[in-house]
Structure formats: structure tokens, C-alpha cells
Amino acid sequence: MIHAEVIRIERNTPTVRTLYFRWDYEVKPGQFIMVWVPGTGEIPISLSSIGAEKSITVKSYGPASDAIVKLTAGSRLFFRGPYGRQFSVVNGPILLVGGGSGMASLSPLITKNTDAIVSARSADELLFSERIPEGRIIRVTDDGSAGIKGNPINALETVDTEKYGMIYVCGPEIMLKKVYDFLTFRKVRAEFALERLMKCGVGVCDSCSIDGMQLCRDGSIFSIDDLKKMPEFGRTKLTESGRRVFFNH
Amino acid sequence: MNKLKTTVSGIELDTPFMLASGILDENGYTMKRVLQEGAAAVVTKSIGSSERSGYRPPVIVEIDGKSMINAIGLANPGIENFREEIAIALEAGKPVIGSVFGSDAGEFVNLSKKMEEFGVTAVELNLSCPHVKGFGQEVGSDPDLVSDIVSEVKRSVRIPVFAKLSPNVSDMIEIAKAADKADAYVLINTVKAMAIDIYSRMPVLSNAYGGLSGPSIKPVGVRYVYEVKKETGKEIIGVGGIRTGEDALEYIMAGASCVQVGTAVYSDGRQIFSKLAAQVGAIMDAEKIGSVRDIIGVAIRN
User: Fold this and answer.
1) Is the ipTM of this complex over 0.90?
2) Is B129 a catalytic residue?
3) 3-state secondary structure (DSSP) of residue B59
4) How does DSSP classify residue A130?
5) Is B57 close to A76, i.e. CB distance below 8 A?
6) Of residues B89, B7, B14, the one with CA closest to residue B47
7) pLDDT in tens, A101-157
């Protein structure tokens, strides 16, 4: 287990915090670490900054993430990794499509040449929208409290998607499927960061599998062409016991 | 003639390499892919009567990137939900071995009959998981219970029955003899172990204890295969720390008819199966060994 000191904490939205720490290790955009809270649990989290100073951005949704969100500066952060494949880095204009806390893993990709569609339930849950200059960002909210009322597709319809060198997408699988369906017959390069239940992080327990691929090892980044060969994408997922269930669309 | 061909309990295998129970074998599509990518057979994750979520993470501790300690906690979707997974795995056209766990003979019999109905090639009785109360090793260290379970299952199904035994007992020969109605033994399961993080001053695994696997336990496995083969003469499937062609041949020369590979999938990826086949083939050519079958247990005779 690796450990590092939390040096500062940023409150991003009412439910999301970013914890900064120093870790002298090369991490690629899209990779994740397994963060352990002794006595509570362990969860996979993507790095939201990958420079000398690194960060994780966490939304509270269960015992381990609750405990991580409550850590204070000076606390020890325990983790193992980094794991998973990276996003392909391209030159030229790129588009990020982030839903909810999905913007966390897309954040290391932000450059001066980045446009973004940032979506959330409501205005105060829009993550990292301040990191994208006005004029390059389209905000989308379920309740219409900021930007376009609706989902990322409503924003994508207003964009010339074919002008980008790559479109990077991260968010809940249902959202990814909608974006995938929208992009699949267009001439675009796109990569998707999938989220599924993950236990071991190293490709042995089979809990994050989709169509025989392990998210923790073969992913969690898949290209649009990879996804075309994955009939389970957006259709079924696995429960903690490994039982296959259908998504409720 | 394919020199890597071997058989165990009459089951023909293209190579001596099966996927061990507990690694990448909970989901039908995953098992199918592992078979398509080179495993000669797969053993499913151990399946019980009802759905279990297993332990909460951390469920594994990595050791030097090659060995690991795991305590998944027998997570499984339950036997009734496993019919579909077996059907998907069988699409690869290779043997699928159903691993089952229970607390008494009746439960093992029901699970084994279900597995047979689902179309598996053989059943493997998990008498050795080291970290779940009331199952596995707790069942497998009682010779009378082991004898009862193996005999009852053997009477109830027509497919071969394998007994997977634990190294965490005081006398494995006694347990092996109690399980002698089985068609073959699977040796060994993981070695009970734990890891403590000194900075948090706590056990890392949520269950505290787990099972050690990988190269760290290979010498223990080789010794049990050799000893049990010598004492009983029964067919053995070797498992424990096999990562290279040399490791596999060591097990085979100790008495294993074939071997299972688990933790090496973690250290080397799913391509480990084709890699092992190439390595064993090359060594056999260099050593002028005509067939795997010629060297099973050769170290005992020598």
C-alpha cells in the first residue's frame, strides 16, 4: 500500500471534494488508483491531476467515499496503483463530454485547445466548469438551472463533432451509451471511460467485466471501435455477486 | 501428434493448462474469451446454493507484482443464475469444469447435479477455500465429512468429480485418502495468510485473513503433488504458483497430469496460457520429451 499526505482540499460542489497530494510517480490521463480507507473500504478513483502534485476528485456515495470526502489536510491517503489504460493523447482541438463526476477523469486532458460539454443534475453540481474558458464550454443541466436543459446529446447536436481530433467521454454508462449512439455513425475518433463495479483492480476477480474484457485492465478507456464489439455495453451490468442484470433505461 | 496433449479422468486436453477456479471465471463471456485465447479448459468460480456478494474491498493484496493474498469471500451469483454463464462459456467448444462449495454433502450433491445438468465436463469440489466460515477448508479438514461429500457426489453424477484439497491441514494424506472416491485431486488451494499495513497499523484485507497464491507457494504445491501422488497413485491436477514452462514441468514431473493457472493471469495477463504452451513445447523439444504423458510423475520413479 502506498501512502501520501493530503496537502489541501478543494470543495468543488456541495457533494464533491478534490484532495491534493504529492506522489512522485508518472500517471497517464484516465488511469485510476484504488484508494483505501483503513477499516472502511477501498474504491477505484481516477486521478483528476497528474502533475507533480496529484489529486483525486470524490463524490460521496458510500462508506469509503464518505470517509475520503471527510479527510482533512494532513491526513494520510492510502492507495495502490496506478491501474488501467490511458486516454490517447492527440494534438489539435479536442472535445470533452463529462457527466456528473465524470469530469474528474477528463480533467487532466484540458488544454488551451479544449472544448467541453459539462452536464449535471443542477447548476451547483457542474464539476470543473470554471476550468474551461467561456466560449469553449456548453453547460447542460437536467433541471435547466444552468445552460441547456436536457442531456449532453442536446448539446452535441449544436456542435460540429467532426472538427475534433478526439472526443473524450466520461460519465454514467447510460449517458455514455446515448453519446455512443449519437456518435457511432459520424466520422469521429472518440474514447469512453467506463465505470463499473470494481473489486480487485488488477484483472482477476471478474467483477468489472464486460463482454469478456476487464475494465480494470483492458480499460477503463475504450475507443468507439472497441465499444462496437461489446454488445453488453449500455445493456447489462454485473451486481456485487456477479449476477448479470439489465440497465433500466 | 500434439506432444502437449494430456488427459485427466478421461477428459482430453489440447495442452496441460486450465484456468484455476477463482480467477476470471465468474462471467460466461470472460471464460469464453480465456478459452479462445489459449486455456485448454476453465474451472468456474466456486458456485454456491444462493447469491453471495463476498467481502467488501480490499479483497486483494499484491506482493512483488507476482504473488497475492486474496479474500474475495466466495462471491457468486448462485447456482440458478449460473446456467446462462456456463452456456456462454461452452460456446468456446472446450471443457468447462464447474466448481461448487457447500457446507454438507446434500448441498454439494444438489450443486453438482445442477452443474451436470448445465453441461459441464466435470465438477470440482471446493473443500479448501481458506477464508470463509462454514465452507471450504472448514469442511475440508474433517475427514469424515470429506469422505461423505465425495462419496455422495460421486454416486449422484455421471461426470468426473475432482476434489480440491487444502494445504492448511495437519495431514493432507489423511484428507486425500478420505476423498479417494474422487476421480482426481486438485492440489493445492491457497495458503492461509495475511498482510498488515504498518502505517495504518491495520490488516489490509477487509476480512483480515486471505489465501496466498502465486510463485510464493509453488514449492509447497510441488511437495504436496509429489507426496500425494506417491502415496495414492491417483490422478492429480497441480495448481499453485505456475508462471513459467519450468514451473509447469516441475508439477508434471511431481505427478500432475495437467495444471491450473490462476495468479499468473494477474502477473502476465490472459496470454499466459499460450506463453506456457510455447515454453513447455520448447523445453520438451530441447530435452527430447515426446509427450507430456511420458513424464507425469517421472520424478517419483526416478
Assistant:
1) yes
2) yes
3) coil
4) G
5) no
6) B89
7) 999 999 999 999 999 999 999 999 999 999 999 999 999 999 999 999 999 999 999
**CB within 8 A of B302, min separation 6: which ones?**
none
Contacts of B163 (CB under 8 A, 6+ apart): B124, B125, B127, B146, B150, B176, B179, B182, B184, B185, B186
Helices (H), chain A: 63-69, 103-106, 152-156, 173-183, 215-218, 224-228
Choose the closest CB to B58 out of A3, A42, A232: A42
Cα gap B101→B45, rounded to integer Å = 10
Candidates B162, B152, B143; CA nearest to B260 is B162
Q: Please write the tens of the pLDDT for every residue from B62-74.
A: 999 999 999 999 9
Spatial distance between the Cα atoms of B66 and B212, rounded to a whole number of angstroms: 11
CB contact under 8 A, B81 and A207: no
Residue pair A165/A91 in contact (Cβ under 8 Å)? The answer is yes
Q: Which residue has the cell 520424478?
A: B299
Closest A-chain CA to B58: A42
Q: Are B179 and B146 within 8 A, CB to CB?
A: yes
Distance from CA of A20 to the nearest CA of B (A): 19
What is the rounded distance in angstroms from the CA atom of residue B257 to the CA atom of residue B40?
13
Q: How many separate helices (H) and strands (E) can be counted in chain A?
A: 6, 17
Greatest extent of chain A over all pairs of C-alpha atoms, in Å = 50
- Report whether A232 contacts A222 (CB < 8 A): no
CA distance A118 to B175: 61
Handedness of CA B81, B84, B88, B94 (dihedral sign): positive
Which residue reads 491501474 in cell numbers? A83
Nearest-5° angle of CA B288, CA B292, CA B296?
A: 110
B292 Cβ neighbours under 8 A, 6+ residues apart: B3, B4, B5, B6, B16, B252, B280, B284
- Average pLDDT of B165-172? 92
